[in-house]
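User: I'm curious whether this sequence folds into something compact or stays loose and floppy. Could you predict its structure so I can see for myself?
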Amino acid sequence: CTSPVHEFAHAWTAVKLGDDTPRLQGRLTLRPMAHIDPIGALMIFLVGFGYAKPVRVNMHNLKNGRKSFALVALAGPVSNIIMALIFTFLQTLIYVITKNAFLPVVVYTVLGSFFSFAASINISLAVFNLLPIPPLDGSRIATYFLPQRIYFKIMQYENLIFLGLIIALWFGVLDGP
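Assistant: Here's the prediction. I'll summarize afterward.
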């Protein structure tokens, strides 16, 4: 349930900053089906991790170019942090309600565990997406800080870097962080 929010945040921010591409492609929505990447979804079941369909943004349509592009990228991880705060609030609310329980305690325990897990996943997704590795959001944020020539040189190898990231995930290289 967090990926549609993350991708919607990218789309909403891009539209607000002048690029209508996400709206025209039907990505300015919270409907999960609009954000599912078939291969990314299949990978979740086959290897335990996957990805959503990235929101396409035309940097040339954005009002402030690279700065706006970085803000669009930042919107996704920020949405994960907001979701984590909401789930943490709900977990706390469940704890308070448990004291005046009118349902079996196991119901509150399961709900509390769910909200705790959802908050943890969102924090993990935010931190992971902020890594400055293409195609993660952190690499898009870096566009604002790197000279253009260096950024475009890195982007020439984005597909290879992405493959390397998938392999690193597969072998657990990033499990520690």
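Summary: The two ends are 23 Å apart (CA to CA). The chain is about 65% helix and 0% strand.
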